[in-house]
Design goal:
The longest helix is centred in the N-terminal third of the chain and has 20 residues, at 43-62. 19% of the residues lie in helices and 31% in strands. The chain is built from two helices and nine strands; from the N terminus they run ββββαβββαββ. The protein has helices spanning 43-62, 141-156; strands at 3-7, 12-18, 25-32, 35-41, 90-102, 107-114, 133-139, 174-175, 183-184. The chain has a seven-stranded mixed sheet with strand order 1-7-6-5-4-3-2. The chain starts with a strand and ends with a strand. It is globular and about 55 Å long. The protein is α+β, with helices and mostly antiparallel strands.
């Protein structure tokens, strides 16, 4: 039986980072009362999760027979620009995530499972192994839209993209493949 870190609903659920652009570690963090759980993940996982939550809410909003009021954008009072709460103790690194809508509770359900360790022996069976831990969050539609908005801001706060090749520009520039190896700097 896995250890469940369940928040139904959390008082706070955000994506955030620790570190400087180019060396940031991304986290999902949930809090309810004194209980605080932080799960590390990749920038791309944050982006995909936010995108999928937004798409899921749009789909539920447009579906017929849905009596739940789904806001089209994040409600004003739910903006959260505060940093991640301390201490940031990584429970695990995220691997697989699932996303669904629970119509009985009118909530978005997010499940995050640890990054699976690859077995060293290729001869082992392909039986599915139950994870040791599960991070489970159920969010109402308003807080879910607020999560999406904040995640977009967190992702956008990184290094600027090169207008020529699209790769991130470090503070000291980068070797642009479109400039035949010449170093380009941020045009700003």
């Amino acid at each position: 039986m896995p250890v469940m870190y369940e928040f139904d609903p959390p008082e706070r659920f955000v994506a955030g980072t620790v570190g400087e652009p180019g060396g940031r570690t991304f986290f999902l963090q949930a809090r309810a009362g004194q209980r605080l759980v932080s799960v590390a993940l990749e920038k791309q996982q944050v982006a995909v999760l936010a995108e999928r939550i937004d798409e899921l809410l749009d789909e539920v909003m447009s579906s017929t027979g849905n009596d739940t009021l789904i806001p089209a954008v994040a409600p004003v009072g739910l903006d959260d620009a505060e940093p991640l709460e301390q201490p940031i103790d990584e429970q695990f690194r995220a691997g697989t995530m699932t996303l669904s809508w629970d119509p009985s509770l009118a909530r978005v359900v997010i499940e995050v499972f640890p990054l699976a360790e690859t077995p060293e022996d290729d001869d082992e069976t392909d039986d599915e192994v139950e994870p040791d831990e599960v991070f489970l969050v159920r969010l109402e539609a308003g807080p879910a839209r607020a999560f999406v908005k904040r995640a977009g801001l967190v992702i956008g706060a990184g290094r600027p993209d090169c207008p020529f090749c699209g790769n991130p520009i470090d503070p000291d520039g980068h070797l642009c493949v479109r400039a035949n190896g010449f170093r380009r700097r941020d045009p700003a």
